[in-house]
Amino acid sequence: MALRFPESVDECLYFTNRKLEHGGSLKAWVYKKQCPECDKAVMGKPVVKGKVKIRAKEYVCPECNYTEEKIAHEETLTLEAQYNCPHCEKDGESTCAYKRKTYQGVSSYIVLCEHCGEKIPITKKMKAPKKKKAKK
Ligand SMILES: [Zn+2]
Ligand SMILES: [Zn+2]
Known about the structure:
- By secondary structure, the chain is mainly beta.
- The strands form 4 sheets. A 4-stranded antiparallel β-sheet has the order 1-2-7-8, with no helix packed on it. A 3-stranded antiparallel β-sheet has the order 9-10-11, with no helix packed on it. It has a two-stranded antiparallel ribbon with strand order 3-4.
- It is built from 1 helix and 11 strands, in the order ββββββαβββββ.
- One zinc ion (ZN) binds next to loops.
């Protein structure tokens, strides 16, 4: 398999580069999808007055305004990963559906090592806990 490493994170809907918890490392990305309607542009979150609406529940083609619902859109995409496997310590490349699964209780994308077939979970990054308001 020969994956193309993204030239810019602007090409990607998702990009991560991290050290894995149990050794090894991983880079993973998901390319933005070419509009299936007009084939002239890549789809992205809607842009209103020059600002991307990060929290929008849909993806839109900037050329023809073709719209897909967020979940349905993301489920058609493929996550690509290059890694140093924490299980067999070889370098590899794999792909998986861009869809989170629960792995050991944590929402993750799961790629399978092309050498040893072990699961390499890409866990959702935990947001820093919000400061609790002081209670009286
Ligand atoms: Zn389009
Ligand atoms: Zn492996």
